[in-house]
Amino acid sequence: MSDAFDELKTRLAEVHDLSKAVGMLGWDMETMMPPGGGPARAQQMAAVHKIAHEKFTDPAIGRLLDALRSYEAGLAHDSDEAALVRVARRDYEKAVRVPAELQAEMTHSASIARQVWAEARERSDFGLFLPHLQRNLDLKLRYVECFDPSDEPYDILLDDFEPGTKTAEVRAVFGALKADLVPLIARIRERHDAVSDAPLHGHFPADGQREFAWSLIERLGATRASWRLDPTAHPFATNFATQDIRLTTRYYEHYLSASLFGTMHEFGHGLYEHQIAPDLEHTPLCHGVSLGLHESQSRMWENLVGRSREFWSFMYPSLQAAFPGPLAGVDREAFYRAINKVEPSLIRVEADEATYSLHIILRFELEQDMLHGRVALKDLPAVWNARMKDYLGVEVPDDARGVLQDVHWSGGMFGYFATYALGSILSAQIWERVLADLPDLPGCIARGEFGPLREWLAQHLHRHGRKFMPKEMVERITGGPIRVGPFMGYLKRKFSDVYGLA
Amino acid sequence: MSDAFDELKTRLAEVHDLSKAVGMLGWDMETMMPPGGGPARAQQMAAVHKIAHEKFTDPAIGRLLDALRSYEAGLAHDSDEAALVRVARRDYEKAVRVPAELQAEMTHSASIARQVWAEARERSDFGLFLPHLQRNLDLKLRYVECFDPSDEPYDILLDDFEPGTKTAEVRAVFGALKADLVPLIARIRERHDAVSDAPLHGHFPADGQREFAWSLIERLGATRASWRLDPTAHPFATNFATQDIRLTTRYYEHYLSASLFGTMHEFGHGLYEHQIAPDLEHTPLCHGVSLGLHESQSRMWENLVGRSREFWSFMYPSLQAAFPGPLAGVDREAFYRAINKVEPSLIRVEADEATYSLHIILRFELEQDMLHGRVALKDLPAVWNARMKDYLGVEVPDDARGVLQDVHWSGGMFGYFATYALGSILSAQIWERVLADLPDLPGCIARGEFGPLREWLAQHLHRHGRKFMPKEMVERITGGPIRVGPFMGYLKRKFSDVYGLA
Predict the structure, then answer these.
(1) Which residues of chain A have a CB within 8 Å of the CB of B225?
(2) Is B117 left (phi over 0), alpha (psi -120 to 50) or beta?
(3) B418 close to B158: Cβ distance less than 8 angstroms
(4) What is this model's ipTM?
(5) Do B28 and A33 touch (CB under 8 A)?
(6) Helix ranges, B78-160 (H)
(7) Nearest-CA residue of chain B relative to A21?
(8) Cα angle: A405, vertex A408, A413; to 5 degrees
(9) What span, in angstroms and rounded, lies between the C-alpha atoms of A283 and A277?
(10) Is A227 strand, coil or helix?
(11) A239 forms bridges with which residues in the sheet?
């Protein structure tokens, strides 16, 4: 039986190598490639991706998975071997349900739609994007039909990003969140003038930001032996091995927050992949378990660590030394308050910790409305604008700053947004457990000691890679299902303090 | 028939994409990758390379090539279609002769030998490297046996780098070269003190060199839209499309020559690939025709352009402005003489234009001696040292600076070295034709106008890619076979002037 297992592992390792090669071509495209290389790069990525897909959906893999049923049954659920067979089977059964032609059509449509979307956003012209959005949505409906009927069609989409999680569960979580969040934001708004983010605006030379960003992640635990940090238009984290982690960030010379918190956010993603157990390397288990849990890690380092008073009590002197001009007269507390200003705004990626989730809930609801035909795509801008007014109290001046702001739908990624807010919620829920185990964690952070936190996360989450399902993982770490209580408690404590709420 | 041609072209395009993906993984490894990524990267490169090889040696390609014989016969020899079929057939027939196991053994042995070689060179310990060199050579002998007997076994090795060129031809060319070169070098040695390279030694900050190197290639014709220039330990040029050219160079802060001439050298390689006709893109024809002709281009830009008085009459003021400290008191003529100092030395890659070829001839002869067993590998250091004394008059102090200096044999690359000297010879022979067509070329160079030279090279050489065999290409450009006359004439004129020879 171990022969079949070895063969499966060898085949999956080859698919893994090919996927990493596609990732490498993509990383280079975003960070290094001269623009002239674009057309050829698209061909190269498509060629390697196609072969990876063919190799993974090879019927031989299906036969091996069948042959390994009794082997798997004899193994402990949490053994690496059982997990490998289980996860590979789940991935395989999903992959073979989608005809190659549909897969190719979706990829092709998305690549065209992405280009049109960029132009449409540039010109703030939703009409230009509309037929491509329609095509992406139509293809997604065909994609949904490839699978057995679920409780809701949207479950199929969600499963690609948060395996095993149901729309109804997310709806319940978001309902509870919204109920608590809206009044909190309203109370903060009343005290709007209590906090100023002026210290973050000024002239912060890119070179200084680059140097500081590296010193920041180095202090958190990154090393030049295994990490890179490069500038890009849209920050992301990727990796080609647990010891080859690539982060990107952006440097706005007039606004300091983007690089500081963007870098810590991506560090959180990178650390998750970096700390996966060496035994899982070169297998499909060598990856974070879901986007939601991944985002819990990026949000934790960005917000629970990075926007804490303790962190800057340690780090602020170096930041001030790096930017003596704009920060000379800004004391630590003023800086702490500035980075925690709450202000309902138009753009999701620029939103603060409190209002961010409302941007997500709006998209989560709209996606379901689109999928069910409750909102005609041509009416999307009007509906978007009305809900922005309703949820966040802001007037959307144009579609570029409204319905066209995000890339996701142009790439056919429906069902993705929810994971961002799930990540925020989970970050606070996991943090509660960390604090229970490491009561001195705030002290550690104030002393710049991040080893205990890294080790806790490695032990409880990171090392497992994709061995367990997301909900199973949350249960293992927190002893129960996802809950909004810890996140709302965190927000209330923090902003009551920052804004002096009663 | 066009269906078969289209299918062939599609299959070859896929192989091309996979090869470029391997190249991308390699470029990143040399320039960007954190060291921790090494082991996984080797697996990724091997995985993609293996599939590229399998796809190319697929019997379906053989059947298509057979089916296309009459189609090919009906086409003009110089049509793109005929060239594609002809070149693909030659590559295919060579590739299928080598059993996959032997290919894998060679790759594996080379990858181990390369690591051992690095350590052996570090410790100057030839004994450490000896068994690995023996294994590489034994495998190469088995490789030779895969092919029909040729005039000489070494022909098989040479053919991988300089297709269609015979050992006897190279021997005759090198014989004529050596006969003329040895007395020239002896005469220069008598005037040894006439030239000083002191101006090149000093403190040249890496940042300044980096900036100057880019301005240099930008002036020669590189643009940020299609080129990159990055630092590496060992300079090289590669590309992932004609509009995505990657050069690397190195910056020695105590010695200016390496980055200046290394960068212009790699620019010559890059320009060759950049100017291949767009119609050949995404096919196996989209590549320089041979290493010798490639080197003719790098040597041309490095030496015939880059070490000319005209070039620095234009460029020296900017260089002086970039390094006002070390170059303040150095006039243009002193700089010109410094970059043209001739001095027999130990290290090939640091050799001047005159002595360089003797390093190559030594290696070319030694490789044949090894292949025929005329020199036992254990005696290689002693033979090396004796010949260095004989050819160049230098005493080799240790194997690190002797037989262990080059990476090639550790990678199993026997038959490669000759192409370096062939390139030097061809560069001058082609230059003679350029001058006949563009009599004002020296004037152009002195004015910093490189467009006419670039266009001449595009027209006569670059645009053809691999459509013609190297000897055919030389014949088309120069009207005859390779000749040492132009190269020796160039060296004699230049060094008679620089050294004031009678």
Answers:
(1) 34-36
(2) alpha
(3) yes
(4) 0.94
(5) no
(6) 80-95, 100-123, 126-145, 153-159
(7) B44
(8) 155
(9) 11
(10) strand
(11) A245
Q: What letters, b where the CB count within 10 A reaches 16 and e where it falls short, cover B59-92?
A: eebeebbeebeebbeebeeeebbbbbbbbbbbbb
Going by the DSSP 8-state scheme, the letter that residue A198 receives in this structure is: G
Question: B361 with B178: CB under 8 angstroms?
Answer: yes
Q: Closest Cα partner for B167 from B178, B152, B177, B179?
A: B152
For residue B403, the model assigns a pLDDT of 97
Q: B243–A282: do the CB atoms touch at under 8 Å? A: no
Q: Contact B303/B489 with Cβ under 8 angstroms?
A: no
Catalytic, B266? Answer yes
Token pair for A356? 């961010």
Nearest to A221 by CA among A163, A305, A294: A305
The CA distance from A387 to A366, in Å, is 10
Report chain A (502 residues): mean pLDDT per 10 consecutive residues: 91 98 95 94 93 97 97 97 98 95 90 90 97 97 95 96 97 97 95 95 97 98 98 94 97 96 97 98 98 98 98 97 95 97 94 97 97 96 97 96 95 96 98 98 97 98 98 98 98 97 86
Are B24 and A44 a contacting pair at CB < 8 A?
yes
Please answer whether residues A294 and A265 qualify as being in contact, where contact means their C-beta atoms are separated by less than 8 angstroms.
no
pLDDT score for A111? 84
Q: How far is CA B61 from CA B11, B16, B85, B284, B289, in A?
A: 8, 14, 11, 14, 22
Burial of A90 per CB tally in 10 Å (0-12, 13-18, 19+): middle
Cβ atoms of A173 and A485 within 8 Å: the answer is no
- Is A345:A355 a contact under the CB 8 Å cutoff? yes
Diameter of chain A by CA atoms? 70
Facing B224 at nearest CB: one of A28, A34, A41:
A34
The tens digit of pLDDT for each residue in B80-130 reads: 999 999 999 999 999 999 998 998 899 889 988 988 999 999 999 999 999
CB contact under 8 A, B240 and A21: no
The total of other beta-carbon atoms located within 10 Å of residue A177's CB is 22
Annotated catalytic residue, options B72, B162, B169, B266: B266
Q: How many C-alpha atoms does B408 have within 13 Å on its Cβ side?
A: 18
Distance CA A302, CA A271 (A): 12
Residue that is written with structure tokens 């590979």 in the block: A88
Q: Which two tokens stand for residue A453?
A: 């936190």
Q: How far is CA A283 from the centre of its chain?
A: 22
Return d(Cα B39, Cα A242) in angstroms, integer. Answer: 11
Name the phi and psi angles at A238, rounded to 5: -145, 180
Interface of A with B (CB under 8 A): 13-14, 17-18, 20-21, 24-25, 28, 32-37, 39-41, 43-44, 46-48, 51, 224-228, 240-241, 243-245, 281-282
Q: Which residue has the tokens 């498509």?
A: A46
Q: Cα separation of B482 and B43, whole Å?
A: 42
d(CA B219, CA A222): 39
For residues A422 and A410, the answer to whether their CB atoms sit within 8 Å is no
pLDDT bucket at B1, cuts 50 / 70 / 90: low
**Does residue B49 contact residue B25 with C-beta atoms inside 8 Å?**
no
Taking the C-alpha atoms of residue A248 and residue A227, their distance in angstroms, rounded to an integer, is 11
pTM: 0.95
Radius of gyration (C-alpha) of chain B in whole angstroms: 23
Tokens of A214: 């590296």
Q: Are B484 and B177 in contact (CB under 8 A)?
A: yes
Tokens at B267, concatenated:
């620019």
Q: How far is CA A482 from CA A297, A301, B43, in A?
A: 15, 19, 39
C-alpha to C-alpha distance for A57 and A52, rounded to whole angstroms: 9
Distance of CA B418 to the CA centre of its chain: 10
Would you say A458 and A69 are in contact if contact means Cβ atoms under 8 Å apart?
no
